[in-house]
Every structure is written in C-alpha cells, then in structure tokens.
C-alpha cells in the first residue's frame, strides 16, 4: 500500500472535518496534518480518484507525491 501526500488548503477544524467526511466514504486510512495543511492517505486507489475525492471539499488540493 502506498502513502500519498496531498496539500489541502485547510484553515480550521471544519475544513479538516470536511476532508474526514469525504475520505471515510472511500474506506481508506488517512492522517490529517492541519497546521501544515497536509493530508496523508494510505491507499492503492488511483491518485486521480483520491484527488477528485478531496476536491469535493471545495478546498484547493494539490498532489505532492508518494511519501
């Protein structure tokens, strides 16, 4: 399983809550680093699927790469 690192423009707990809601639907293991605006996702799913899912939060999302 690969750990993918994403930048998500989160500013508060509400933002990280939105990320949590969309990722729970994908059934993946993830970790949110709110101060650094990073999301780490452990998944074998395609990065485009993960990126599109994160974009459902309405936040600016950038794929940084595998960790």
From TrEMBL:
Belongs to the ATX1 family. The lineage of its organism: Eukaryota, Metazoa, Chordata, Craniata, Vertebrata. Residues 1-62 form the HMA domain. GO terms for molecular function: copper chaperone activity; metal ion binding. CDD domains: HMA (cd00371). One of its GO terms (biological process) is copper ion transport. Keywords: Chaperone, Copper, Copper transport, Ion transport, Metal-binding, Transport. Binds and deliver cytosolic copper to the copper ATPase proteins. May be important in cellular antioxidant defense. Homodimer. Interacts with ATP7B. Interacts with ATP7A. Interacts (via dimer form) with SLC31A1 (via C-terminal domain); this interaction improves ATOX1 stability and controls intracellular Cu(I) levels. InterPro entries: Copper_transport_ATOX1-like, HMA_dom, HMA_dom_sf. This is Copper transport protein ATOX1. GO terms for cellular component: cytosol.
């Amino acid at each position: 399983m690969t750990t993918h690192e994403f930048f998500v423009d989160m500013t508060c707990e509400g933002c990280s809550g939105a990320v949590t809601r969309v990722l729970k639907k994908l059934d993946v293991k993830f970790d949110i680093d709110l101060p650094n605006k990073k999301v780490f996702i452990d998944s074998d799913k395609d990065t485009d699927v993960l990126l599109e899912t994160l974009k459902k939060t309405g936040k600016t999302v950038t794929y940084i790469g595998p960790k």
